[in-house]
Design brief:
Immunoglobulin-like, OB fold (Dihydrolipoamide Acetyltransferase, E2P), 4 domains, disordered N terminus
């Protein structure tokens, strides 16, 4: 029979009901584990609008659906700071249950806030982070990794065949991230938060195994076709999507027709015609040119290996840009970003056949 551990977190000291939204003074105790499943039990006060939310990264364990709130879990202890059971508006306990699925690791992030508010992230008053490890016998170990934050990174390139992405981070420089089959891959240019177990290989570049990732912002690049100053919008001929209507908040200056730019947004795009996005950041781009001979073309990965004055360069072509023919001389337009990998990699914005004398 597979062995499991149970983790039970309970409050040894709770704030009064009137102060439940400030969870900083709560003290949690880890009790000896027992077999069966992994249970996280967290004090809450739903009467104040504050609730616990759990986000699971990695598929080594499965979360049971729903949150169970236990109103009578701890007896009343008047004046002792314990949870008062059966009282309207009194603190309660929320329980989260996880079971092992297969060998591996997962990170669970608990946040305490008001999810119904417009800016729910800003309402979060407490965050708990735990690493759950499952061995080949199904045994579970849980470790508090509250000091492990997700890696904030910008995706430089993606290798779909190898299921890897080369990303740039301010703290570690370039890092190679490996993604399991259970995760979708990000896109080149995305800004992401990557959750992992805190271990990075001491290679060049450093390597990590992703347990999960969140999209912070993505971008589309293209030419500004027209600008409507009254409605604070611009029609963009985007390289990945065709024509897109971009809406600009008051705090972001409107572009000029003819600009070539990157428009950053939160990944939400309407299904209207044309589709619409709300711009979070606008960045005019300079298109740099790189000439070279096409050594080979890989239709599966939509890449071409080029022989250039900078040596061999691997060019990544978006879906809407036609691939060149092998042995041809071409000039590629890109955003000036070239990875330090071997070979160096760029993402194609435009390309044309080079004129031959």
């Amino acid at each position: 029979m597979k062995k499991f551990l149970t983790l039970l977190l309970a409050a040894a000291l709770l704030l009064p009901a009137a102060q439940a939204e400030d969870a900083a003074d709560e003290i949690y105790t880890v009790f000896p584990p027992q077999k069966g499943y992994v249970t996280f039990t967290l004090p809450a006060n739903p009467g104040t609008g504050y609730l616990w939310d759990a986000r699971l990264y990695g598929d080594a364990v499965l979360e049971s659906p729903g949150i169970m709130t236990l109103n009578d879990a701890i007896p009343v202890g008047e004046g002792s700071g314990e949870i008062s059971a059966g009282l309207v508006g009194a603190p309660t306990i929320s329980q989260f249950l996880f079971t092992a699925d297969h060998e591996g690791e997962a990170v669970v992030v608990f946040t305490y806030g008001r999810p119904w508010e417009e800016n729910a992230d800003a309402s979060v008053t407490q965050t708990l982070v735990y690493l759950i490890s499952v061995n080949e016998d199904g045994e579970i170990a849980v470790r508090d990794v509250g000091d492990v934050n997700p890696m904030a990174a910008q995706v430089l390139s993606v290798d779909a065949e190898e299921r890897t992405a080369l990303v740039y981070t301010e703290t570690h420089g370039e890092v190679l991230v490996r993604f399991p089959e259970s995760l979708d891959l990000p896109k080149a240019g995305d800004r992401v938060n990557i959750w992992y177990n805190g271990v990075m290989a001491l290679s060049l570049p450093g390597q990590i195994n992703a347990l999960g990732w969140d999209l912070v912002m993505t971008s589309l690049t293209g030419s500004i076709v027209s600008v409507d100053a009254e409605n604070r919008s611009a029609l963009v001929d985007a390289s990945d999507f065709g024509e897109v209507l971009a809406l600009f908040p008051e705090n972001i200056a409107l572009p000029q027709p003819g600009d070539y730019a990157a428009l950053w947004y939160d990944g939400a795009m309407t299904r209207s015609l044309p589709p619409q996005i709300t711009v979070a950041e606008y960045q005019p781009l300079t298109v740099y040119e790189l000439a070279g001979r096409v050594l080979s073309v890989d239709e599966a990965t939509r890449t071409a290996l080029l022989d250039t004055e900078n040596g061999e360069v691997l060019a990544q072509f978006p879906e809407n840009i036609t691939l060149p023919e092998a042995d041809g001389q071409i000039i590629i337009g890109f955003n000036g970003i070239m990875t330090r990998s071997l070979p160096a990699q760029i993402t194609v914005l435009t390309w044309k056949t080079a004129e031959t004398e």
